[in-house]
Automatic annotation (TrEMBL), chain A:
One of its GO terms (biological process) is amino acid transport. It is a multi-pass membrane protein. It comes from Meridianimarinicoccus aquatilis. The chain crosses the membrane at residues 12-34, 41-71, 91-110, 131-159, 188-209, 221-247, 259-276. This is Branched-chain amino acid ABC transporter permease.
TrEMBL record, chain B:
Residues 5-238 form the ABC transporter domain. The lineage of its organism: Bacteria, Pseudomonadati, Pseudomonadota, Alphaproteobacteria, Rhodobacterales. InterPro entries: AAA+_ATPase (IPR003593), ABC_AA/LPS_Transport (IPR051120), ABC_transporter-like_ATP-bd (IPR003439), BCA_ABC_TP_C (IPR032823), P-loop_NTPase (IPR027417). This is ABC transporter ATP-binding protein. SUPFAM superfamilies: P-loop containing nucleoside triphosphate hydrolases. One of its GO terms (cellular component) is plasma membrane. It holds the Pfam family BCA_ABC_TP_C.
Amino acid sequence: MDLVNAVVQGTLLGGLYALFAAGLSLIFGVMRLVNIAHGDLIVLAAYLGLTTTAALGVHPLVALIVVVPAMAGIGYVLQRAVLNHTLGDDILPPLLVTFGLSVIIQNALLEGYSADPQKMDAGALETASVALGPLSLGVLPLLTFAFAIAVIAGLQWVFYRTPLGRAFRATSDNQDIAQLMGLNKRHVFGMAMALALAVTAVAGILLGIRTSFDPSVGGGRLIFGFEAVIIGGLGNLWGTLVGGVILGVAQTVGATINPGWQLLAGHIAFLVILAVRPNGLFPRISG
Amino acid sequence: MTQILQLDGLSKAFGAVTVADSLSYALNEGEALGVLGPNGAGKTSMFNLITGTLQPNSGRITFAGEDITSHSAARRSRSGIARSFQVPQPFTHMTVFENAMVAATQSAGLRRHEAERLCIDVLEQTELLDKANDRAGGLTLLNRKRLELTRALCAKPRLLLLDEIAGGLTEAECTSLIATIKSIHASGVSIIWIEHVVHALMAVVERLIVIDFGKKIAEGAPKSIMESPEVQEIYLGIEADA
């Protein structure tokens, strides 16, 4: 029974990891940029949520109305002002610049909010649960999983059903030709980063409701996001959700066996899948 | 006659290799101009300069009365310059229809329904309509070439640049291509066409220029150019190589 419970809880936790990963996956897919600062941007979103709830006295989920557009705006400006200049044939500059960005965000958060752990108060939502047979499912994890599915379905819709998505895919496919078709790649990349950080805003707020956070936790979120993307297969958004779930289940099952094994079990699952399927479980068909 | 395109003293060199050497000529609105020259003469580089993929070292490009030398490739595309590539370069992961839609919505700036209507019309004209939902990466060479033309036309160009679009086609395919290009030309689109398949070129263009080492070495009516000694020499050379 413990095991069944662990699998179910792990699946729901996987929703949060998929939200960490979706933005990372989107950015890599559109512009082949590996964003080392992604975890710190999630934490930044959590702090923006904290400030919004404190200043306006609203529920953390209501704060999404402010934080999602704010993060999208930050994403667009960040891409146009900084990251676009790092993109080229060499993959090293974006890695170095986003690593530097990670350091800057962490230190700015330390300066602004101190190193004390913070948490967002979501009231009754945090402890509410529904009984499913012998299992007790938290409403917050269920909500997080629902958000993950909605976000990934939304991204999928944008990618395959809208002119913006066509622009993303065309630019990803062949940047030079996309420009000859009238696409301004700097703007397209800016829009992609805006969308990615809008997703990051959702991830950050849900993280901040679920657990306490401080400026240093970004690195860990980045690793979970990376692992979910790699397990699922690069460039496949639904695969990313599956990757998040596998990672979440591995962690909760590991923790059931021995409380100290939670993180280790997740990393081992990742390494095993990497060894067996180096391209992930559902790599995008290329050709 | 108003001029749609004018090149003034356009020069571009990569180290010791000169791909454009004070290149100057003008194209009238609605005119079809053919470009001849041996391989490596700088013909494709000239297209790259006109579309904005390459920046010239010196010189000026004027399109529809506006100096576009400093404009980005995307902006030039939106203002009405479209091209096809000698080696087709579709967006391989997207369908044929989506490829066309990128040009129609981004370059021509059409709204969804107008864009869809244009794409369907053009796909019909280029005989690709039955392949509309196929992934572009899986097309045959002929269909990839058709897709190049489709995408260029879906951009609703005022100036169409064709880069060896007849190369590698069979006689029958070439005949139908010539008919298509003639009807595009008849609709008022200005054309510059680089082509080694001389009879195809002669069937459409009103004027020829010859380029070698990035320099314009001859210009005039197609018939007189083809009979000129420079061209005879160049093309006999090519025949011998082939």
